[in-house]
Amino acid sequence: MNHQLVKFERNAMKKDDALSPRPEEIELKLALPACDPAELEKKLARMPGLARNKPSHLQLHNTYYDTPEQTLRRKRMALRLRRVGSDAKPEWLQTLKMGGTGNSALSQRGEWETSVPGGELDLPALKATPWSDIDPDGDLFRKLVPCFVTSFDRTSWTVRKRDGSVVEVSLDVGQIVAQGKSVPIFELELELLAGQPAALFGLAQQIARSIAVVPETRSKAERGYALAEDSLNRPLRAQPPQLTAKMAPTEAAQYVLREMFCQFTANLNTLRHSNDPEVLHQARVGWRRFRSAFRLFKPVLDADTVPSREPLETLLTLVGELRDLDVARTETLPKFTDAYIAGNARREEKWQALSQALTQAADVQRKAVCYALAVPSVGAALLAITQWLEELTHNQESENARDALKISLRRWARRRIARLHKQLTNALQDVDTLEGQHRARILAKRTRYGIEALKPLLSRRRTKPWYRQATDLQTNIGMARDVVQANLLVVKVQADHELAEFLRGVAVGQERSG
To answer: Which of 208, 223, 300, 322 is disulfide-compatible with 365, CB 3.0–4.6 A?
Structure first.
């Protein structure tokens, strides 16, 4: 009996046991930045934890259904019909999935999987699931239509640990097809069959020692919907917070930091397939928000559990350098094009040569970022942070965190933002130097990101002017910095001396006017 049917029987047994929780799927999803599928399978087969286990091979063809209005998607549900095996001897499985936060590579959601007789959805098979509560009359079921298809080969190893945990490691290679478009599937899924989620991360870290991975926050279903509506490679921007005053400080920290880290890793995954400068920008914003929020919540976090970020430093440096190139060539320099050319054909040629040089430099730098993502230690560091975030509320809180519990989260949040604003106010007393301006800009960013993160807990009347001040400072100081940075890049790509002098004059003029 193949794994899919074993999984069905396990879920069925859970439903028969009144004391058992709902059937639940717990899995860790990992994108694979750079590797040949055949070579990767050989690497996995040689790994100590997997080498003792004979892999199974399945061909999986899945059709996902929803209403034309995407009712299931809005309810965070997915319904699929899976064909396992060959066309000659197919087996059909109908699966309903519900829940999941969608902002972590670790997915925990309800799952009800049932064997069905043929290649069509079966309403009676949904009776023992929450579908009956959502669609008691079957009206929703009758509106369902195929939305997209995933088709892939799955190679799986079942790993049993001495502590009793059981993990299935699956290498999926295939494609998602929607509306006549397709994108490849190339990923690892680690599913917990028994034990605690830490077993997933332990095995994932073992894999990440020799194989480059990046935490994948989007399921195949989410990517299928995105492909169907042409939004698959769009940048992921910051999501509005949904904190409540009843949360504990570490719970609020987990929610805020997880969303920000998701913005970072999701855009990292997207930039492997997209040259859109905004994708890279949002990856950098996600990391800066994460770093700022970490400082904000640091008093209530256990410093001993925080993973090292050192393996990410090269990647982050490359991302910053690419962002500088993107800003210079797409935002800063175009504003001065007409002023420099002024109808002069010779100057126009020089400007075009500069634009081409910066574009070529950006292309090279973008490849360097992708190469950095293919370094195993980078994926291992991203995994460590993912695990830390998932276990944040389970770790013993610091003494400061216990002290924070004595006051409400709302009061704690207001104190933290007031402290940030005071630091910014003090920094503004010394902005006559580049160092002073840099510190003020950093504190302006931290104040802005902090207010955004804790917005539901703050006094709008008090923090609105603080937010406006921080945003204006960040923008104004940033614009001056961008002109200086653009001038440095012009020199670096060995542009014409006259053009470099022109931009140096622009930078000096802006500095004086500021």
So the answer is: 322
Give the separation between CA 175 and CA 468, rounded to whole angstroms: 46
Reference 47, options 284, 282, 275, 205; nearest CA is 205
pLDDT digits (tens, 9 = 90+) for 303-345: 889 999 999 999 999 999 999 999 999 999 999 999 999 999 9
- Say which residue the tokens 């042409």 belong to: 230
Residue 509 tokens, joined: 């003029």
pLDDT category, 400, cuts 50, 70, 90?
Answer: low
The CA–CA distances, whole Å, from 310 to 122, 176, 296, 384 equal 52, 35, 20, 12
Handedness of CA 417, 420, 422, 428 (dihedral sign): negative
Contact yes or no for 225/148 (Cβ under 8 A): yes
430 by DSSP, 3-state: which?
A: coil
Residues in the chain: 514
- Asked if residue 468 lies in contact with residue 444, where contact means CB atoms within 8 angstroms, the answer is no
> SS in 3 state form for 136-166?
CCCHHHHCCEEEEEEEEEEEEEEEECCCCCE
> CB pairs under 8 A, 24+ apart, for 9-15?
10/193, 11/111, 11/112, 11/113, 15/128
Report the interhelical angle of 249-271 vs 345-373 (nearest 10°).
120
CB-based burial, 60-90: b 16+ in 10 Å, e otherwise:
bbbbbbbbeeeebbeeebbbbbbbbeeeeee
> What DSSP state is assigned to residue 25?
E
Q: What is the pTM of this model?
A: 0.92
d(Cα 425, Cα 431) in Å, to the nearest integer? 11
**CB-based burial label for 145 (10 Å; 0-12, 13-18, 19+):** exposed
